């Protein structure tokens, strides 16, 4: 190369790009976080909901719950409404076994509920069938964070938290 400055830029580009990648705030890797956020924002765009931003703080919050669930036997359960672990944000939880599951695969699982959703308000009768999907597309939510933990039996728990939370009974998600 005739231009030493260009050579310097080419050689240093990967380090610069890597240094610019934000920390995810959890065991979700930065590239995995970017992919899961992109997936969320793609499905939100389908219904006209604004994009989410990744939150390292929410990811830390999600990671703590994922670690807690893994330590307690890997049962799928949401944070309680009160006490030390009280819910502060919207929450989706995924469980998978037999291999590693990434944050986008968990998100795709929640998105699969779309087939059961008929646009309208969240009700007590439809919440259990569509609540993961509707939290993903809840128009008022602005931030997403995710955490992952491996259970003693090798299965995986992935927790997503959304702020502000959604899924209010009687309210349309978008």
Automatic annotation (TrEMBL):
Presence of the UniProt keyword RNA-binding in the record: no
Signal peptide residues on this chain, from the entry's feature table: 1-19
One protein family per Pfam: CAP
Matches recorded under Gene3D superfamilies: CAP (3.40.33.10)
Keyword Signal among UniProt keywords: yes
SUPFAM superfamilies from the UniProt entry: PR-1-like (SSF55797)
Keywords: Signal
Domain SCP, residue spans: 31-170
Domain of life (superkingdom): Bacteria
InterPro entries according to UniProt: Allrgn_V5/Tpx1_CS, CAP_dom, CAP_sf, CRISP-related, SCP_GAPR1-like
PANTHER family: CYSTEINE-RICH SECRETORY PROTEIN-RELATED
Protein name: CAP domain-containing protein
Origin species: Flaviaesturariibacter amylovorans
């Amino acid at each position: 190369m005739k231009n030493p400055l260009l050579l310097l830029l080419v050689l240093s580009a990967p380090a610069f790009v890597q240094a610019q990648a934000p920390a995810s705030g959890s065991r979700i890797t930065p590239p995995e976080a970017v992919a899961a956020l992109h997936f969320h924002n793609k499905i939100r765009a389908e219904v006209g909901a604004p994009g989410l931003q990744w939150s390292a703080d929410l990811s830390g919050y999600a990671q703590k719950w994922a670690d807690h669930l893994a330590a307690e036997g890997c049962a799928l359960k949401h944070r309680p409404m009160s006490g030390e672990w009280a819910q502060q944000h919207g929450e989706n939880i995924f469980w998978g076994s037999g291999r590693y599951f990434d944050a986008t695969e968990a998100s795709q699982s929640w998105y699969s509920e779309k087939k059961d959703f008929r646009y309208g308000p969240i009700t007590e009768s439809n919440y259990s069938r569509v609540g993961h999907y509707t939290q993903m597309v809840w128009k008022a939510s602005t931030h997403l964070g995710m955490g992952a933990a491996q259970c003693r039996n090798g299965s995986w728990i992935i927790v997503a938290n959304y702020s502000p939370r959604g899924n209010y009974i009687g309210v349309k998600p978008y």
